[in-house]
Automatic annotation (TrEMBL):
This is J domain-containing protein. PANTHER family: CHAPERONE PROTEIN DNAJ 13. CDD domains: DnaJ. Residues 13-81 form the J domain. GO terms for cellular component: membrane. The keyword Coiled coil applies. Keywords: Chaperone, Coiled coil, Membrane. It holds the Pfam family DnaJ-like_C11_C. Its main location: membrane. The keyword Chloroplast does not apply. InterPro entries: AtJ13 (IPR042162), DnaJ-like_C11_C (IPR024586), DnaJ_domain (IPR001623), DnaJ_domain_CS (IPR018253), DNAJC11-like_beta-barrel (IPR055225), J_dom_sf (IPR036869). Residues 424-451 form a coiled coil. SMART domains: DnaJ.
Length: 557
């Protein structure tokens, strides 16, 4: 049996085959083996070709059960995989005792916990460079000012976290800075308390407490003392979940600058919107963002009040897994602006450029039309052809690298890639055969769920995550990517339990599930599922090693 391609947790194929969690008990393993044996036992089939398919899959089930039901073999498999078992590792001098294997396994678990804790150290930062074209033309220099901010959060324990931050701003001949610290502790399952303090501009010390009042409501109460003027400020925020995708909040501030604010946010898979009203500067603001594809989005925002009147439009594009660029155009009483943004990980670079303080109609139109036209021209004739070419090249390199790992030699020529392609085709045929024997039981379960208004999988596709997207930039390659996905509707209907639920375990690669296969070795994969429950439509997509539990109200379309 082949192990995974190294892109996720190793040595989980046997668990996927029996539809088990890696933490499954001996009884759960025996129960799963009996369930699969009832489906694939060769004696159940009379037709020669069906008996042959059943025999092949029954042997796989027996092999998985033999390994996972043996404590010694299971622990070796968990650590070293099939390679460790096939090489006779259980007979070696270093790991010939169960206690020694357990010690090695615990050591690896501790290492993973340390890696997980280090991943909880979350740094964030931003740099804002304000530029002015009018001042540059007047000979005063293009830089209006600069601001920098940085923050890092560390998870001290499961219930405590410490956040340290600082900021520095310079504008013309003046500047200011501040440093702050926040200690957060979860005192109960529904309550947290925060202690905060800052020095520099706006020095203060304070404490606030957050409590979940109900399933949909949260309240936050805070008090802070300013060292600048000695004033005491009280804050109170109520947040309410209005629907599956929308929430609202009311904020009350009491102090030298008392105010009331009301806000609303809505976010789903492709759109997000927000609005707020405040009495501090007496203004209303709204923002709407629409995702056009997996890589691009558009945005429109507006602000109106005693100190602002402006409209902002623009968009952004994801240029890599961690980087996004964005350009925005703003026109209002403060003037005409461009703003360029670069987001990478938790870091941001923002460059607002003042084009004119006067609302010149010609300049305002040109500042919007010219960059927009340039972007669409470059996208069509430069960026899109480049990305398509790069995706094709990456797909070929992944195929060559995976095949090299399997056969141990370099594959450059197309005719040498043919065995690799044949191997994938054979895996697809084996998955189709496995599904053939699941069909009767899966259809019976589906019909029973339909009669009771339970969980029915209407469509399930597994494979290359790019092929599952609907972005315009991928339509030209859909024919090539179509061969890198697999219809798994039938095996998922088979896995629905009598209670009308389906669970795919965390950390287990889905290609190992009975009736699945890996249609694109070396490529990132996702599982896209559409289902109905109590007459409602639902939809969800999860990564290859991500846990899936359905039905869930968050998946409702």
């Amino acid at each position: 049996m082949k192990e995974d391609d190294g892109t996720g947790p190793p040595n989980r194929e046997l668990y996927a085959l029996l539809h088990l969690s890696p933490e499954a008990s001996d009884e759960e393993i025996r129960r799963a083996y009996r369930q699969w044996a009832q489906v694939y036992h060769p004696d159940k089939y009379q037709a020669p070709h069906m008996k042959e398919i059943a025999t092949e899959n029954f042997q796989r089930i027996c092999e998985a059960y033999e390994i996972l039901s043996d404590e010694n073999k299971r622990q070796i498999y968990d650590i070293y995989g099939m390679e460790g078992l096939n090489s006779g590792l259980e007979l070696g001098p270093k790991l010939n005792k169960v206690e020694e294997i357990k010690e090695q396994l615990e050591k690896l678990k501790r290492m993973k916990e340390q890696q997980k804790m280090s991943a909880l150290l979350l740094p964030k930062g931003s740099i804002v460079a304000n530029l002015s074209l009018p001042e540059f033309l007047d000979g005063d220099g293009i830089m209006r000012g600069m601001a920098m901010a940085s923050a890092v959060q560390s998870q001290l324990s499961k219930s405590s976290a410490l956040s340290l931050s600082g900021n520095l701003g310079v504008e013309e001949n003046s500047g200011a800075g501040a440093a702050s610290a926040v200690f957060r502790h979860q005192i109960a399952s529904d309550s947290t308390i925060e202690f905060m303090g800052s020095v520099g501009l706006g020095s203060l010390i304070g404490v606030q407490m957050t409590r979940q009042l109900s399933l949909h409501s949260t309240a936050t109460l805070g008090i802070a003392k300013s060292f600048h003027d000695g004033s005491i400020n009280l804050s109170n925020v109520w947040t309410r979940q209005l629907s599956d995708t929308a929430s609202g909040n009311i904020e009350l501030l009491l102090g030298p600058q008392s105010s009331i604010g009301v806000g609303w946010q809505k976010k789903d898979q492709n759109t997000s919107a927000a609005g707020e009203f405040g009495t501090n500067s007496f203004g209303i603001s709204a923002r709407y963002t629409r995702r056009f594809s997996s890589k691009s989005h558009g945005r429109i925002a507006g602000r109106i009040g005693s100190a602002a009147l402006e409209v902002e439009v623009g968009g952004g594009r994801k240029v890599s897994d961690f980087s996004t660029v964005r350009m925005l155009y703003t026109i209002g009483i403060r003037g005409i602006f461009w703003r360029f943004e670069l987001h990478r990980g938790g870091q941001k670079l923002l460059i607002p450029i003042l084009l004119s303080r006067d609302l010149n109609p010609v300049l305002a139109t040109g500042a919007f039309v010219v960059p927009t036209s340039i972007y669409f021209i470059l996208k069509k004739f430069v960026f899109k052809p480049y990305y398509l070419k790069r995706e094709k090249q990456k797909a070929l390199e992944n195929m060559e690298r995976t095949a090299t790992q399997i056969w141990g030699y370099d594959l450059q020529a197309r005719n040498v890639l043919l065995p690799y392609i044949s191997d994938v085709q054979e895996a697809r045929k084996a998955a189709a055969k496995a599904q053939q024997l699941l069909e009767n039981v899966a259809n019976r379960k589906r019909n029973k769920q339909q009669e009771t208004g339970g969980l029915v999988i209407t469509k399930a596709i597994y494979g290359n995550h790019k092929a599952l997207k609907k972005g315009d930039e991928l339509r030209e390659t859909n024919d090539e990517l179509a061969s890198q996905v697999l219809d798994v509707t039938l095996p998922l209907n088979f896995l629905v339990n009598d209670s009308g639920q389906l669970k795919l375990h965390d950390g287990v690669k889905k290609s190992g599930i009975m009736g699945f296969c890996d249609p694109c070795p070396g490529e990132p994969k996702q599982l896209h599922v559409e289902y109905t429950y109590h007459g409602e439509r639902y939809e969800v997509a999860v990564d290859d090693y991500e846990e899936l539990i359905i039905p869930q109200i968050a998946h409702r379309v």
